[in-house]
Write a structure and sequence with these properties.
The structure is a homodimer. In chain A, 66% of the residues lie in helices and 9% in strands. A three-stranded antiparallel sheet of chain A has the order 1-3-2. In chain A, helix 1 runs antiparallel to helix 5. The two termini of chain A are 29 Å apart. Chain A is globular. The structure holds a DNA duplex.
DNA sequence: ACGTGGTTGTTCAAATTCAAACCAAGCTGT
DNA sequence: ACAGCTTGGTTTGAATTTGAACAACCACGT
């Protein structure tokens, strides 16, 4: 067993910062969304992605990939949102197996009311803590990290 | 309802990068640890923290805080590790209520064998993707983000 | 000593997550 | 047309997570 290259002090600090920041920001967000909009973060993300998509609809598999979640997990969450009338399912015309998740008017409306508080929290927890320079590095570096892990 | 300051392009890129990188890295790590060591990431983290602590033991509540998890979640995971003989519980001499989680020799041994693969994956997924400059910014910036959310 | 309030860790129920099995439908080559 | 492989989405069961409720205990002021 070859001795690996351990992390030096800087690398360790970056790694731990990455882990802790990820955990804490996620936690903070989850709590804020639950309190103010009654949504989990995954649910909020579903609504956001649908709202951004043309027609407010995306195929299930495609949506699962964008959300970086399992297909079964998405089935469950879309079910939850459907129960609350925020999303509905629509059969795909060209592929009998296919299913679109569609944002309803109620869903769009809830998103409108939830968004300001969400953005404020994102700013408070992450964005406004950093200066422009740091934001640029984060965007570039973490963008690259994400991109590489996509395949 | 006051119009919030929405995120501009750079801020949005940083935020999305942060989310996607966090998700993907976590996912990659989870998979690697499960495959090579039969541990979940939370479990691995427990072992690491114990190994770092003097005497290889930490009080449950203290450990939960370091891991940024709920107390009940920790109770469960320590139970799992205990079943496998990687950790044991020890009563606290000065406080009857208190419980130490203690790393066993088997736990230390498993950690030794698991660590190299883990570090390699962390490098591959995150550390080695960035240059020193970026690592420094990440460490400082995300360190600050985490610190602020500690309250 | 005594009450009061805060701590400690566990238990509990409910919600969520994932991977694997599954079914139905599409696609490809013969 | 048909066999064999891939895809799309759901179902299923097991594992995990969380917050709330709980029981036992500590510390402190009176």
């Amino acid at each position: 067993m070859k001795e690996p290259r351990w992390l030096d002090e800087l690398e360790m600090a970056a790694w731990q910062g990455f882990l802790e920041a990820g955990n804490r920001v996620t936690r903070r967000l989850e709590q804020q969304l639950k309190d103010e909009a009654g949504l989990s973060h995954p649910q909020y993300e579903i609504l956001v992605h649908l709202a951004d998509a043309p027609g407010g609809e995306i195929r299930m598999t495609e949506l699962a990939e964008r959300l970086i979640t399992s297909k079964s997990g998405l089935t469950y969450q879309v079910g939850q949102l459907e129960r609350r009338g925020l999303v509905r399912r629509r059969a795909c015309p060209t592929d009998v197996r296919g299913v679109f998740a569609v944002l309803t008017e109620e869903g769009r409306e809830l998103l409108r009311t939830a968004a300001p508080g969400h953005v404020a929290t994102v700013r408070e927890a992450l964005i406004d803590v950093l200066d422009r320079e740091e934001l640029a590095v984060l965007a570039r570096a973490l963008g690259e990290v994400g991109r590489r892990l996509r395949d």
